Amino acid sequence: MKILFIGDVVGENGQDLLAKALPKLKAEHKPDVTIVNGENSHKSGTGITEKDARFLFGCGADVITGGNHSLRRCGVDFYEENEFVLCPVNFNAVTDESCGVCVLDMGRNQLCVVSLIGTVFLDANRSPFFEMDRIIKKYGHMPIFVDFHAEATSEKYALAHYLDGKVSAVVGTHTHVQTNDEQILPKGTAYISDAGCVCALDSVLGMKKEACIEKQKYLCPVKFEVKSGEGFVNGVLIETDPGTGNSTSVEKVHIKFN
Ligand SMILES: [Fe+2]
Ligand SMILES: [Fe+2]
Questions:
Q1: Which one of the ligands is nearest to 8 CA?
Q2: Per-residue pLDDT tens for 99-114?
Q3: What is the whole-number distance in angstroms between the Cα of residue 155 and the centre of ligand 2?
Q4: Cα 149 to ligand 2 centre (Å)
Q5: Is 173 within 8 Å of 232 (Cβ atoms)?
Q6: Which ligand is in closest contact with the Cα of 195?
Q7: What fold is seen in the domain 2-257?
Q8: What is the pLDDT of residues 15-54, one digit of tens each?
Q9: Ligand 1 center to residue 7 CA distance, Å?
Q10: What phi, psi does 243 have (nearest 5°)?
Q11: Domain locations in the chain?
């Protein structure tokens, strides 16, 4: 089973880049499942609405995962109503597991997709470790893909090794910068600290650089705006044995577009 995952799509510029890239990527790699992180896909660069989700599905996403911005433009009810749009399952605000976990049924094969958030340098939520214990008990009979939206690489590695052999993949998101540490862990879990994002190159993580410089230099409130123009599309392609749930390869996807 081939799983294509694309990192945080930032604003309309990210949506445009995704629309250009995803059909080509899907034609080239023929993934069985395509997962896209949409927590920044709203035109403001934070959050997601029904319109944004529709656009990402229209580009070819099968499942949309979330992050710390998932509740910025909509409530938990949005995730309750939309089976394949996920927010982090361990958000304190989430009591209905279906908000952050879904199962894709592909006939012979199934895949459980989990949107999960870290607790280090982010607003505290329920422990991702205990949350995954519970999810594995319920869905451990099928391959499980985890989008772990977290800030600290230490937390990402610790969770990935904790889940090694129990899930098919732990793919990091949130820092928007693709890391160079993709690997298959000793017991068969595919891992990368961060898949990267879909955003303009001449920016700070997808936002106009001037406001970001102002914010970092003076620590004053600023209005962030999404940067348009030339950008890149980042993600990973994972090959998983649907029988054992072990992954056999993980490759980075990294394309630049004008
Ligand atoms: Fe993000
Ligand atoms: Fe984030």
A1: 1
A2: 999 999 999 999 999 9
A3: 15
A4: 6
A5: no
A6: 1
A7: Purple Acid Phosphatase; chain A, domain 2 (3.60.21)
A8: 999 999 999 999 999 999 999 999 999 999 999 999 999 9
A9: 8
A10: -75, -50
A11: 2-257
